[in-house]
Design a protein that fits this description.
This protein is elongated. The chain contains eleven helices and two strands. About 70% of the residues lie in helices and about 5% in strands. By secondary structure, the protein is mostly helical.
Length: about 200
C-alpha cells in the first residue's frame, strides 16, 4: 500500500520469480529464496545475463560451451550419417554471409543461424529446440568472440565444421567442435569476461 503497488502486480512478480527458479513458494508457509541452479531454466540464465549488463560469469560461460559441444557434435554426427547432400547444402548461404560479414553482432547471429540449421538438418526433433533455447546466451558469446578476435575467425570455424560434414568425417567434425570450444574456454581464444 505504501508503495502504491497492487496485490496483482506483487503476485505476478512472485509467480515470475518462482517460474525462473529464484523463489520457492510454499502455500500457507511463505516464500523462500531458492537455488536457481536447481530450480531454474535457461530463461533464468538469460535473466541473470541481462541483469548483469549482458555478461556471464566465467563458470557460466564454460558450462554453456561444454553443452554446446554435446549439441553440435551430435548434430554433426547425425547430419553426416543421415542428411542428404541437398540438406547439407542449406548451410552454404550462412557461410557466404559470414565470409563477408564485418559486424560482430550480425556475425554472432549468423553463427547461431548456422548452428541452428545444422541442428535442424540432423533430423533429431529436439536438437533444434535445444539450440534455440540457448539462442540469447550463445549469441552474446559469439558477439564477444567476434569483437575480441575478429569476425573472420567465426567464419573459419563454421567453414571447417562444414568441410568435415561435406567430407562425411564424423571424427574430424566432433574433434574440431570440441577443440574449438576448448580454445574458447581456456585456450588462445578465451571468451571469458577477463579475456582481452
Amino acid at each position: 500500500e505504501s508503495m502504491h503497488v497492487s496485490r496483482a502486480v506483487v503476485n505476478s512478480g512472485i509467480t515470475n520469480l518462482e517460474k525462473k527458479g529464484f523463489l520457492d513458494v510454499r502455500p500457507r508457509i511463505g516464500n523462500f529464496v531458492a537455488d536457481y541452479r536447481r530450480n531454474g531454466t535457461l530463461e533464468t540464465l538469460v535473466t541473470i545475463m541481462n541483469y548483469n549488463g549482458g555478461m556471464l560469469r566465467d563458470n557460466e560461460v564454460k558450462s554453456i560451451l561444454e553443452v554446446r559441444v554435446i549439441i553440435l557434435s551430435l548434430a554433426a554426427k547425425l547430419t553426416i550419417e543421415q542428411a542428404s547432400d541437398e540438406a547439407i547444402q542449406t548451410l552454404t548461404p550462412f557461410l557466404e554471409q559470414l565470409k563477408s560479414c564485418e559486424d560482430p553482432e550480425e556475425t554472432a547471429n549468423l553463427m547461431f543461424a548456422f548452428s541452428h540449421e545444422l541442428a535442424f538438418i540432423s533430423g533429431n526433433t529436439l536438437l533444434p529446440l535445444l539450440c534455440a533455447s540457448f539462442k540469447d546466451l550463445v549469441i552474446s558469446l559469439w558477439y564477444r568472440y567476434a569483437k575480441n578476435y575478429g569476425c573472420i575467425r567465426l567464419y573459419e570455424s563454421a567453414l571447417h565444421t562444414y568441410d568435415y560434414i561435406v567430407a562425411r568425417d564424423i571424427q574430424g567434425a566432433c574433434d574440431f567442435i570440441e577443440q574449438s570450444s576448448k580454445d574458447s574456454i581456456d585456450g588462445d581464444y578465451s571468451i571469458y569476461t577477463n579475456a582481452n
